[in-house]
Structure formats: C-alpha cells, structure tokens
Amino acid sequence: MKKYKWLVPTIYIIFLMLPIYWLLNMSFKTTTEIINTYSLWPQKFTFENYITIFTDSTWYTGYLNSLYYVVMNTVLSVAAALPAAYAFSRYRFLGDKHLFFWLLTNRMAPPAVFALPFFQFYSSINLFDTHIAVALSHCLFNIPLAVWILEGFISAVPKELDETAYVDGYKFWRFFFKIFIPTITAGIGITMFFCFMFSWVELLLAKTLTAVAAKPIAATMTRTVSTSGYELGLLAAAGSLTIIPGAIVIYFVRNYIAKGFALGRV
Amino acid sequence: MNKTENQKAWLFVIPVFILVAFNAAVPLMTVVNYSFQETFGNNVFTWEGTRWFKQILQSDRFHAALGRQFLFTGIILFIQIPLGIFIALTMPKKGIGVSVCLVLMSMPLLIPWNVVGAMWNIFALPEIGFLGHTLNDLGFDYNFTQQIGDAWFTTVLMDVWHWTSLVVLLSYAGLRSIQPAYYQAAEIDGASRWAVFRHIELPKMKKVLTIAILLRFMDSFMIYTEPFVLTGGGPGNATAFLSIDLVKMALGQFDLGPAAAMSLIYFFIVLLVCWVFYNLMMRNEAQS
C-alpha cells in the first residue's frame, strides 16, 4: 500500500494537466485543422496563432491592460490592508468584530449582484473604461481577503516584539517599517500573490467596467470568438498565454502557498 | 492573543473602510433602490414596496435556480473535500516532489475563469475534444451541449478540476503542522492507519478544513463565468445557476426590479450560511 502511494498525486496531476495540454495542442494547430481532424498532437505544427497575438495590438494590449490593473489593485489592496490587519490583530476598538465581518461580507458578495450597479456607478463618476476603475472595483473582494490573510500572519508574531521595540525607544511608524514589515515579508508576499491571483482570474466586473481603452485580455477573447466565428486556434493560443503569469508567480511563492490558502492560520 | 483597548486603531482601518465602502455602499444602495421600485427609464421611478420580493420568492424560476445551485454546491463539497484530504494524505512530505506537486497542483487556480470555461469547452466537445472524443470512442453517447446529465457531469468535473487543489493545499498545510511526536506515540500504541487519521490528523485539520468549506461554499455558490462559457446555462436552463439566471434577468431581459430583489435574497442566503461557518471558525480559533 505504502509503495503505491505516489500513484495518487501522479494520477491527479495527470488529470490536471490533460485539459491544459489539450489547449496547448490546439494553440499550435490552425483552426481548419482543429475542426477537420482529430489528433493528439499538431499534424502541421504552426506558430501562426501566437504571431497574430503578438503583432495585433488589439490582442497584446489586452495583456498589458490586464497586468496593469492587476498590479495596481495588488499594490492598493496590500498597502491599505497592512495597517488595518495590524489594528485588527493587536487592538480592541469600538465595533472591531462587526467591521471585520462586514469586510468579509464583501468577499462573499456575488459579483453578478454588483455588475450592473458598478457599471452605473463608475460611469457616473467618469471612471468607466479606465484601469483604475477595475483596480478599485477588485478591491471589493481583495481587500477583505488581504486583511484576513495578513491578520493571520500578524497574529502569529508575538506581541513582545512590539513591546520590546517601544521599550527600546522606537516610535510607532519607525517600528512598523523598520522592524515589523521585515518580520512578515512572507505574509506580505503571499498576500500579494492572492490579490494578484483573484484580480487576474476575475472577468465579470473587469468586462463590465471596460469597453476599449482598458479591456482585459480575457474579455478580448470572448469578443473575438463572437465576431469572427470560432477562431479556435487563436482562442487556444490566447488562453495558453494567460496561464503564464500565474505559473511564474506560483513558482516564487510555492513554499508559502499552502500557508497562504490557510489564511496564515496554520 | 490579549489585545489592548485602543480607539485610535480606527485610524489604521480608515483606508480599508473607505475603499471598500466606496465600492460596496453605493452599488448596494442602487440594488436596494431598484428592488423596491419600478422604472421605465429616464429616471422615472414608482414605489412598489415588497412586490418584487414576493414575486421572486413565489416564482418557480427562482426556486428551480436555487435548487440547482444547492445541488451543485452540495455535489461540489461532497466530492472536493474528501478527495482533497485524500490527495493531501498521499503527497510527498519532503524532497523535490513537494515543490513539483505544489506548483503543478496550483496551476488551475491561476487560470482566468473564462479561460477555464473555454478550455473545458474545447476539451469536452464530442468532435474535437479529448474528453468528448474518448468517451464516445468508449461507447458512451456523450454530448454536453445536448444532454442534461452530460452537461452536469462536465460542469462538476470542471469544478473538481479547477478547485480541488485548494482543498489539497489547505489540508496539506494542516498536515504539515502536526509534530512528528504524535505519529511516534501512535506507532508505539500500535494505532491503525484509520485511528491515526481519525484521532490525530483530522482534529489537526479541523481549522483549515473549516476555511476550505467556507471558501468552497462561497465560491461555488457565486459561480458564474465558468459554466457560462462552458454551457451558457444550457441545455435549456439545466445548468443555469443563480448568478447565471440573475444576469439573464438583469441584463438580458432588463427586469431590474425583480433582478434586484433576487440579488438581495441571493446575497442574504450566502451571508447566512457564511455567518454560521465564520462563527464556527472563530470558535475553533478561540479554542486553540
């Protein structure tokens, strides 16, 4: 029994990789080949789809737009969440428990509920179709998550650290930036990873709040499919490319990722 | 941890409060406004009281969507939680295998949701997809765009593919926090594999598993993009879960009043269930 234990993760990983392989397989075929012949690997291997994406600005600006608002959102969320998480972890104050749960309720709100009001709201303040609009709207679910994860990591740091620093004559902000932030860099890194992840994968709000100038890659994909018939090869290539940023960031946080999913509470 | 009473802590919380309130308050009030009024465009509103709420709560369409949603979420939790624990138990504990497993298993989590839907669409199509083609070769009459059972099978399989790794990672983190001394003690006592799992590993995973169930409940209950791209809610309305039905009503038919009322009822249900889980979680935390 012990001897065959490795089989389970292996089979699971193969199951995970199959659809990804299929997408890659299709991305190296022409659309005609996809529709007319069924084969486990490309018969006429082609880079055409990728070349189209990298040379046509409607495609590659989609990537840049996505990366732009995702990075903006990540920085915004973590910067705002850090002091708040510290406060929730260290202090008792009027309404703290209620406030914490209220924050979490926003993580629980179905984006479908907010799509239309968001569109009206951001249009009325003239932010429609800007990167900042998407970045701000993603704060709705990323800030609660960031506060939650950071609070877990901060609570794991003994309070004596703060107290010793004050005894040593540190003022609060100097302590916060010089001592505290360096102690929880792993927590901050993992929080940034999660903000990046949830902003990168979200489409409903990003699509609702943009038209042309800030259109995310994921939305570009849906539009191209509906206008020019099913350009399956192109769609597959664009899809494959959206996997890359995620794969890169996972590699950097792989040792902390499990702890992060446990919201810093293991 | 014993916390100090300090009202100035509010200053730390203000940026978060403003950013979230900016996003939550106005849109939520818009929904509330619509839910009590009738509109014919041009900003003309008439008061309707609780009419839309009554209409939604009595409508068969809402009941059907709600039923499908609970069934879907139930199936998802029933498959993903045990499967996730099982895979976590068999994962390597040290060496290069750990990194390989963690990186590869996390991959599905970082793929944009509509790409997940599109990917599964071309993976499952009977003519050109690997899954569809293979199943038909094996003699199954499989077509997820035509048959209700196949559509459900594919949607569930897609979600298992997409999110089981979350449960695996959480369970794995819980397992890693167990001191080797516990296992040694169990070995001395001659405890069976099942006893080790039941009395050592499961209690240690309680905290992370509550989080896993909470997150999986929330996200599967709000699911929209993946099934929308995969099946479009079809065939018919067979896979039109709550969010899909809601968007259809709000943006497709522009029935803003009923859609807003449905939004609020929907949100309320999510809140209620999450509140229960949240309190369970906090109680776990207070105990440890």
Structure notes:
The complex is a heterodimer of chains A (266) and B (288). Chain A is mostly helical. Chain A has a single domain (57-224, 242-261), classed as MetI-like fold (Orthogonal Bundle), CATH 1.10.3720.10. Helix content of chain A is 76%, strand content 1%. Chain A has helices spanning 7-27, 31-36, 48-55, 57-90, 96-108, 111-124, 131-155, 160-167, 172-183, 185-201, 204-208, 217-227, 232-253, 257-261; one strand at 91-92. In chain A, helix 7 runs antiparallel to helix 10. The longest helix of chain A is centred in the first third of the chain and has 34 residues, at 57-90. In chain A, 49% of the residues are buried. With 288 residues, chain B is an all-alpha fold. Chain B has a domain at 59-254: MetI-like (MetI-like fold). In chain B, 74% of the residues lie in helices and 3% in strands. Chain B has twelve helices and three strands, in the order βαββααααααααααα. In chain B, strands 2-3 form a two-stranded antiparallel ribbon. In chain B, strand 2 (37-39) and strand 3 (45-47) form a beta hairpin. The N and C termini of chain B lie close together (11 Å). The relative contact order of chain B is 0.12. The model of chain B has no long low-confidence stretch (mean pLDDT 86). At the A-B interface, helix 1, helix 4, strand 1, helix 5 and helix 6 of A face strand 1, helix 1, helix 3, helix 4 and helix 5 of B.
Low-confidence stretches of chain A: none
- Fourth-tier CATH superfamily name of the domain at 59-254 in chain B: MetI-like
Q: Which outline of chain B best applies?
A: globular
State the separation between the terminal residues of chain A, measured CA to CA: 29 Å
Strand content of chain B: under 5%
Secondary structure elements and their pairing?
The complex is a heterodimer of chains A (266) and B (288).
Chain A: H1 7-27, H2 31-36, H3 48-55, H4 57-90, E1 91-92, H5 96-108, H6 111-124, H7 131-155, H8 160-167, H9 172-183, H10 185-201, H11 204-208, H12 217-227, H13 232-253, H14 257-261
Chain B: E1 4-5, H1 9-36, E2 37-39, E3 45-47, H2 51-58, H3 60-90, H4 96-106, H5 113-124, H6 130-137, H7 148-176, H8 180-188, H9 193-221, H10 225-230, H11 242-252, H12 256-287
Helix pairs in contact in B: 1-12, 2-12, 3-7, 3-9, 7-9, 9-12, 11-12
